[in-house]
Structures are given as C-alpha cells and as structure tokens.
Design a protein that fits this description.
alpha/beta; disordered C terminus; 16 helices; 3 domains; 2-enoyl-CoA Hydratase, Chain A, domain 1; OB fold (Dihydrolipoamide Acetyltransferase, E2P); about 450 residues; 16 strands; five-stranded mixed beta barrel
Amino acid sequence: MRRGLLCGLVLLGFAVALGPLPGFPAPPAPVSLLELDGAITPVTVRLVATAVERAQAERAQALILQLDTPGGLERSMRSIVQSILKSEVPVIVYVGPTGARAASAGVFITMAGHVAAMAPATNIGAAHPVAVGGGSDKEMMKKVENDAAAFARTIATERGRNVEWAEKAVRSSVSATEREAVKLRVVDLVAENIPDLLAKVHGRTVKTTRGPVTLQTREAPVKRIEVRFRDRFLALITDPNVAYILMMVGMLGLFFELSNPGVILPGVLGGISLILAFFAFQSLPINWAGLLLILFGVALLIAEIKIVSHGVLSIGGVVAMILGSLMLYDAPETGMRISWYVIVPTVGSTAGLFIFALSYGVRALYRRPSTGAAGMVGEAAVARTALDPEGQVLVQGELWRAVARDGPVAVGETVRITAVEGLTLDVVRAGNPRQDREETHA
C-alpha cells in the first residue's frame, strides 16, 4: 500500500512537471486591475508605472486600468501614455464603472491602451488643452494645441483608431458616448463590467513591445492592485482642496508661534503643514498671483489691528483671500479647483482667528497692569492708623506706609491709592471720586 502511494506521488510530480494533460487545459493566467479615479497627477503616474511593473513581475497576461477622470496635467498624461506604449503586458483601458468619463487627459490614456473599452452610460472627449494659471498668450496656446493634436494623432495611428476624431477632440473639444465611440472607432467595445470585458476581449491579438500577444482572458482570475498607504497619502495631500487647507493651517500655525514664542505646538504643526503644502504645490499648477493675493489678504488683516480703518482693511483682506483662493488653481476641465465649500469656511475662520487673536493681544497690551506697583494704583485700602498725614493702611492683607494727600484720615476709613513711591503709598479718601480720578490721571 505504501509502495502504491509512493508511485502515485511520483506520477503526480511528473504530471505537474510535464504540464497539463490533453483535454485538461491549464487555467488562464491572472489579470491585474488598477482603479484610477480623479484628476491625473504625478501620483497617478507613479501608480500606473508601479502597476505595469507588478503586472510584468507577477506574469499577469494583461493589466486593466479602470479609468474615471475629468482630466489632469499634460506632463503626467504623457508619462502615463509612455508607460502604456512601452509596456510588455497588454494594457486594457476601461472607462468605468457606469457613469464614468474619460475627459481631457483621459482621452489620450484611453486611446493609448492596447484595448480600449467603455462601460454603459459613459463618455469620452473634450481634450482641448487648458492654460492653468493664466500665463499663456494666444500664440503660446496655439502651439500647445498643435502639439496636443499631433500627439493625439500619433497615438490614434499607433493603435489603429480614428485619427480625425482624435484631432477634433483636441481642437474642437468634441465628445462621444460609449456607443458613438465604438461606431467612430475611438474605442474597441462596450462592456457591462469587468467579467464581461474579459469575455469580450478573449482571443483578441494585440501588439506589445515584445511582439503580438493573444489574450486568453475568459474566466481569468482578476487580481486587484491595492494602492499602498504612501500613495494614498500622497494622493490625499495633492488634492487641491487639501493642499489649500494645509497652506492656510501652516500660515496660522507659524503666525501664532511667532506671536507667542515658546508655545511650540502651533509652530510644529504649522511647519509640517507648510512643508506638505509646498510638496503638493510641486505637483499642482499653482498661480503665483493667487498665492500673493492670499498673503496680501493676511497682511491686511494684521494691519486692521494696528490702523483704524473702520473695517475697510478687514473687508479688503477677506476679499483678497477669496480672490486668491479662486485664482490659486482653477481649471474645472482638469479637476484642479478649490470648492466653495472649502473656501468660505477656511477664509471665514482664518479671518476670524486673526482678528480675534490680534485684537485680544492689543487689548492685553493696553490693559491696566494688575500686578506690581503699577497694579496697586486705583486699589482700595483701609486705614489701620490715623493718617495725619502719615500712617499705615492695609492693602490685600499687607501693611503699607501711606501718606494722605487730601487731609487727615481716621482709623478704619477707606482710602484709594493714587501713586506708589518706593515703599510709600499716596492715598486719598475713597469718598471723593472726582479727586480720585484727577489724581489717578495725573
């Protein structure tokens, strides 16, 4: 019996080594899946490059990029397209799920895929370049448009797609639904979901950098590529709204630390927030005029405390901060903009904190001292001995030498301190408020 079991194990080892037996085909290789949702940024470039490398290392037969984007940065889009064109693993770009879109930069990425597919109720198009930051003149925009149109044509030619429509998407911002895109040969097919997509691309032969590859994707296992914490964190802070909040928190933190040296915590939080904001700004199309307007608005709020403007400087500061926030990066076509739901609370709370903190500090600066010799002026005291004119008074549980300046004072009578000269108090009767005020002002 043991000999039979041993022979069975040996035969099983030979079967595994020699491959599948006739009539028992090998299971299909897995397919990798990466979901891309949101604007195309340098973080997206890193995600796609990492996904292509992992798909090749894990011997996946294809990589699916599920795309839903309003567009993004032109430089990041070109890097992603280059990664797809150089990939040895077939890349299937799937505009999904239902209701998704591939606008602006998403058009180039979709057309660059070895296979391009769309889910029902999706759209593609509107790839006209947009100058973010307002720094390009008409001639420069014409150059950018021609360059983008040429890039769209070469991608469409390489993948055998509609070259004319690709150029119109850039020059005229034309768009198409998923059904129209198939008829126009912009994409290859419409798929309900990922399993339907794998079934429909099964048997299709595509050309990669290592030669033609025939896809065997029907019922292939899908291995989702999980985004690591580092990439999720970088994607979070490069969101325009988050980067804007980090900048405002950083400025507030450093301001409070400089106003109150030694508190430490606001300075630490402010420094970290500003560094993260500057890192995000490297990946975002910043309009420096917007940033200067925000800083100018903060300066106006500070000046309001020092200069009597009857609210003009405060209003100007708030307006400058709002305008700067709108100009910081505003490109709806690429998804790079700040939401009003972020601008209004942030500007309002920042202005309120500045005005409250600075006004509180100024009030504290001009407040009458409450300790020391200066703090005793105006305090009430009780005569412990007759003052004629010298004697002793009791102040806050302490005996002091006192000199009455407005005539003799009887024992137990209440007096008010008008001045402190060394260890001697100048006092007047508390019942003479007019004289008290005159002495105090003197």
